[in-house]
Design goal:
Elements: E1 6-11, E2 14-19, H1 30-45, E3 51-56, E4 61-63, H2 68-71, H3 76-94, E5 100-104, E6 107-109, H4 111-118, E7 121-125, E8 129-131, H5 145-153, H6 155-164, E9 168-169, H7 170-176, E10 181-183, H8 188-200, H9 204-217, H10 222-236, H11 240-250
Parallel strand pairs: 2-3, 3-5, 4-6, 5-7, 6-8, 7-10
Antiparallel strand pairs: 1-2, 8-9
Helix pairs in contact: 1-3, 3-4, 4-5, 5-6, 9-10
Length: 260
């Protein structure tokens, strides 16, 4: 029986999804993309899951890129199909209604950076390297890298990373807004666990509303985004969590949110 390329472990309301191909630096092949897509679809549907942490196995890489040995055998049609499947995975992660934290340990290159950028928050170890080196293979980013990097870091940084193909340090990625935070390698798990715990204790429906408003708002006009935000804001007043949150604030106690 073939080993699954993705491991799923729950710790209370936090689900950790680990790409488990350390011998290949967790490279994304077709089987791994399919397994990740299924894992995120299952997590989305599971009401017991409030937060998702995505990471790679081993100490060297989050994901070092797409699987070049598999890509080398593809023709134009197969390559286009592979790219579209990768884009669909990234979109599944990006539109997930539960917060997704990328635990970036080591290399996040090519498809690995594209995967991290699809997540909602990115915490990197200080030895991490990120980049879009596809130019060195005679390719361009195909899983959404040109578009998400542009939106995170701006045109100048995107062109530099994609045209030169040179990886940058975690510190530089933080400066450009590609990652949210950089911590020492030995502190990565502690920080990610603390952040996941904080999010898991927050109001699930409000988290969902924020995620949907930000993702939707970033893809439409300001007016449309404001209308969507207003509708989401109003819906929160019909939730038990809103009553619990406001009552707890007035009563000077910690709220206990139920997602209702």
């Amino acid at each position: 029986m073939a080993q699954t390329p993705v491991l799923v472990i729950d710790s209370g309301p936090v689900r950790r999804i680990t790409i488990d191909r350390p011998d290949k630096l967790n490279a994304l092949n077709a089987a791994t993309i399919a397994a990740l897509t299924e894992a995120f679809q299952v997590a989305e549907a599971d009401r017991s899951v409030r937060v998702i942490v995505l990471t790679g196995a081993g100490q060297k890489a989050f994901v070092a890129g797409a699987d070049i040995s598999e890509m080398a055998e593809m023709d134009a049609m197969a390559g286009r199909d592979f790219g579209l499947r990768g884009q669909a995975l990234m979109r599944t992660i990006e539109t997930c209604t539960k917060p997704v934290i990328a635990r970036v340990n080591g290399f996040a290159l090519g498809g690995g950076l594209e995967l991290a950028m699809a997540c909602h928050l990115r915490i990197a170890s200080d030895n991490a390297k990120v980049g879009q080196p596809e130019i060195n293979l005679g390719l361009i980013p195909g899983f959404g890298g040109t578009q998400r990097l542009l939106r995170l870091a701006g045109r100048a940084a995107t062109l530099e990373l994609c045209l030169l193909g040179t990886p940058i340090t975690a510190a530089k990625a933080l400066q450009l807004g590609i990652v949210n935070e950089v911590v020492a390698v030995e502190d990565l798990d502690t920080r990610v666990d603390a952040l996941a715990g904080q999010l898991a204790a927050s109001a699930p429906l409000a988290l969902r509303g924020i995620l949907e408003a930000v993702i939707h708002g970033g893809e439409c006009s300001l007016g449309e985004g404001l209308q969507f935000e207003g509708a989401q804001f109003g819906l929160m007043f019909a939730t038990d969590d809103m009553r619990e949150g406001t009552t707890a604030f007035v009563g000077k106690r910690k709220p206990q949110f139920t997602g209702r």
